[in-house]
Structure to design on (270 residues):
């Protein structure tokens, strides 16, 4: 919900920028100092799947010499990318665990010096469930991943998801209650494609509610309270929608009653 300039990263331009980072890094430290980068979150989704078009930044776990920071900043300046376009801020979130390294899979090597990896499907789902933000793409990403694997003929099972959660976070109950209920219901119902569209719409609406809230109450939302605020706003919005529907129903019933009385009166007058 930041006011930082928005930029859209796609699978195509992520490849371009990472290739440029690798070339710049090699120029600064030489080919004898390899680096490794594990792409997390939206970037990992974009690289592995086709249901999502973009992300606004690239989260990554980076193991490299100090020249990597300069390489990233140089490429950012060259292409006029926003500050922090490639960052490790993810390490400060609840979904981070050092165990992610164990469950990463090879993606590509750039300039013979930068090896990039992504997160395996079920562990990516586990991360998204651990975060479970209803104003981001966490839950729709889960559905998108499930849907694509079903289409590929490699469906992901509930057992795989449970194991991935335990792999990363120790216990199934480490997930928020809302995320556990969500994935249990989703896996029971199926229809991932249909549910995907509904969840995307809900995430957009929740984000809009938060934007309006921040405009009305600037500086109130923080990283520690934004989920609670989003949940409260959703409930109020749902309640308002229900009340609006009830008012509409009552209005229609009143109108129907008036028409019925009018018909009866006209019938008597005849």
């Amino acid at each position: 919900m930041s006011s930082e300039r928005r930029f859209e990263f796609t699978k195509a331009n992520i490849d371009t920028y990472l290739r440029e980072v690798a070339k710049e890094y090699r120029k600064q430290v030489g080919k004898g100092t390899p680096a490794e980068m594990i792409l997390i979150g939206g970037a990992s989704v974009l690289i592995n799947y086709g249901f999502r078009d973009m992300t606004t930044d690239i989260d990554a776990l980076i193991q490299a010499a100090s020249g990597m920071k300069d390489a990233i900043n140089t490429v950012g300046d060259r292409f006029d990318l926003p500050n922090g376009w490639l960052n490790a801020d993810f390490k400060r979130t609840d979904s981070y665990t050092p165990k992610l390294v164990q469950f990463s899979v090879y993606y590509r090597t750039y300039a013979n010096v930068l090896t990039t990896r992504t997160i395996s499907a079920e562990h990516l789902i586990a991360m998204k469930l651990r975060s479970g933000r209803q104003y981001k793409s966490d839950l729709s990403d889960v559905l998108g991943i499930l849907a694509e694997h079903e289409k590929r003929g490699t469906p992901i099972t509930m057992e795989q998801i449970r194991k991935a959660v335990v792999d990363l976070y120790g216990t199934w109950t480490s997930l928020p209650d809302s995320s556990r209920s969500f994935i249990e219901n989703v896996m029971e119902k199926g229809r991932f494609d249909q549910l995907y569209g509904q969840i995307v719409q809900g995430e957009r609406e929740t984000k809009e509610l938060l934007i309006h809230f921040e405009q009305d109450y600037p500086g109130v939302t923080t990283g520690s309270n934004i989920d609670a605020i989003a949940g409260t706003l959703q409930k109020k919005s749902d309640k308002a929608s229900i009340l609006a529907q009830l008012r509409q129903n009552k209005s229609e019933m009143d109108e129907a009653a008036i028409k019925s009385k009018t018909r009866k009166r006209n019938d008597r007058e005849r």
